[in-house]
Amino acid sequence: MSLRVNGLKVHYRTLRGDVQALDGVTFSLGDGEIMGLVGESGCGKSTLGKSLIRLDHRMHHIAGSIELNGRDVPIGDDAAMVPLRYHEISLIPQYAMSALNPTRRIGRMIDELLRSRGVRPADRADELRRRLELVGLGTDVLRRFPIELSGGMKQRVVMVVSTLLDPSLLIADEVTSALDVSTQRSVAESLVEFRDRGHVGSMVFVTHDVALVHQFADTIMVMYAGHVAEKGPAADVVSDPRHPYTQMLLSALPEAGEDTGERLRGIPGTPPGLLDPPTGCRFRDRCPMAFDKCAERPPLVETAPGHWSACWKTEGH
Ligand SMILES: Nc1ncnc2c1ncn2[C@@H]1O[C@H](COP(=O)(O)OP(=O)(O)OP(=O)(O)O)[C@@H](O)[C@H]1O
């Protein structure tokens, strides 16, 4: 499995003009790679996740291409995307577990979903049972209503359903944010296990939680205001961040076990509005290292093997 996203621009049409939510996003994902996608609220994480599978009616594909396993993904053509959805690319949207239909038993809901995707439920019944077991659920959940399950159980059901057709790519959007810390970890471990067993090819794991994602992701991509700031091996991004935004994002996190008595400080300032974003580097108004050249947009450059950064001050620019 391989994914290549090249120069992707996606805007939201609003009465006040176009919100430039993704402005030339370029990255690739290798076979089996789990990529954590992080950045402050509003930087375009969910928009990128949705763009890979389904644009809603306000989203417009302005430019750029997506290639999955060497084939073009026609994101601007809703009808042409139908055969790819859930079979090739699957999404666990934000709040999916809260959106389970309260009047349907889990088993019936799964049957209906499979039929809507052109699959006979009986053909996947054994696999469904195996995967429920894999995430620690008995088949009795199939007879239950969503209200009878805990948050962690619901999230596991959603994971199993979203991956039942063995997609090449899974986008998991904030799947752990509403869960307690130990459940977060076990949901993340189940996703890794699904990848290890080949139930999903690669994964984009969207989260605010750098500390959690760095424990299990292979790579981390940091977005800022619709641009990619940095992408690289998870351990390198955390131990040797190249982009000043990543450095500030990480320094705003507490060290494990450390209590300095200081209040945590966020990054001063706020991201620019995307209706009329500044030209050049979009981080420059908040960046302590900004200089004249930042009025020009810095290209994303590979500064070490597999480690990319878009900053004029990073070596290699
Ligand atoms: N339906 C919409 N109409 C107009 N603008 C939108 C819409 N949805 C998102 N946006 C804007 O697009 C930009 C990217 O939003 P997006 O939800 O992708 O960010 P995010 O990083 O996923 O944020 P969060 O972490 O809060 O989910 C933001 O400026 C947001 O205000």
TrEMBL record:
GO molecular function: ATP binding
Pfam families hit by this protein: ABC_tran, oligo_HPY
Transport is among the record's keywords: yes
Name of protein: ABC transporter ATP-binding protein
Keyword set, alphabetical order: ATP-binding, Nucleotide-binding, Transport
Domain ABC transporter stretches: 3-250
Domain of life according to the entry: Bacteria
Listed NCBIfam families: oligo_HPY (TIGR01727)
PROSITE patterns the record matches: ABC_TRANSPORTER_1, ABC_TRANSPORTER_2
InterPro entries: AAA+_ATPase, ABC_transporter-like_ATP-bd, ABC_transporter-like_CS, Oligopep_ABC_C, P-loop_NTPase
